[in-house]
Amino acid sequence: MGKLMAARDETVTTPRPWLLGMAIALAAELLFLFRVTVPDKPVFDEVHYLPAARALRDLSGPANMEHPLLAKELIALGLRLFGDGPLGWRAMSTVAGSATVAGVFALTWLLTGRTRAALTGALLAVLGFTVYVQARIAMLDTFLLAFLLWGIVLLTATMRDGSVARWTAGATLLGLATACKWVAAPYVAAAGVTFVMMKRERPARWPGLGARRALALLGGVSVAVYFLTFVPAFFYANERMTVARLLPFQWDMYLRQTQKLPHHTYQSDWWTWPLLIRPIWYLYEPVDGAQRGIILLGNPAVMWGGLAAVAACYWGWVKRGSARLLAPAVLWTFGVGIFAVIPKSLGFYYYYYPASVFLSVALAVALDHWRARLEWWNEVYLLLAFALTLYFLPVLTAAPLAHAAAFHRWTWFPSWV
User: Fold this and answer.
1) Are 215 and 196 in contact (CB under 8 A)?
2) Rounded to an integer, what distance in angstroms lies between the CA atom of residue 218 and that of residue 167?
3) Which pTM value belongs to this model?
């Protein structure tokens, strides 16, 4: 995570626009809810996670045992609140997606101190496609990123005042992110390393929060919260969890996650994700009376433009030593780099989801930093991202398509089929 939290030291002091952030979250929620019940059937990995959520709702027994429980518990909560139908399946994902957009707003504001830059980051998160698609499907990664992003926001915000309560809340959220998918665990370690490095460089950061106390809270709280999410498993009707089985169960999850899996049509290597080489069709078939499709593909303007922004942020840091430029670039690099070392036999484009959203932050920070030089090109770029959103909208929203071969209109390269 590099100097992420140090970047807050360079921000402009302005009133915190929390009300605006809440309004953005509400607007995103309304957007994600519109036609969220289409299609009226499980999509892609919903076929795995909906049965697991039903098992948790009914406390019948373990299911989908290769992942922790929290994201599936939240899907189960949606089933309880809204019924076992498309709205119930996806309602909690829309909330997580809205929280993610608001988190991009908050993080960008912390790094720049500028409301316009924060709004740009939130807008690019929505126009980037990945948040929109993931917010409308019952998958674990949607919840993972919402908790992870807000954990980063709170830990970063703590730098100025050293608030133990805020630091503890950030550690709690990182623990909850890990309780959705283990891929969040490296961020906990990275936050600890970042704290130690930054505290040594400038002891005035996190005033009153010493290294031992901070690391104990970060590690202890995140681990404790992680294990607390397993409480429902202690009430299963079958194969009930026990204290003695809790740690061995973690090893069982590890073995399941690292097992050798057969070839999958949409598998891809981590280095291909930033280049948009192999997206995933979550749906492409006749359903609800029409041919429909949903593709998980990042907006080319945001994904490829984001790579240029990351490079520019690194260059700007080298030239000026600006931590606010370094922070989003390191976040994106870390988000991609961990998959180069994680022992998984298969990779998929949706693993890139957190890193794809960090690109929105990098873009907003870069556009803000060089705003005087870019002049009206900022607006031209945003219009391009919006135009591509309109172009791809039918295969982001499962809209009715003209015929079975209509996908050719949106598959620019053979690998996108």
Assistant:
1) yes
2) 8
3) 0.94
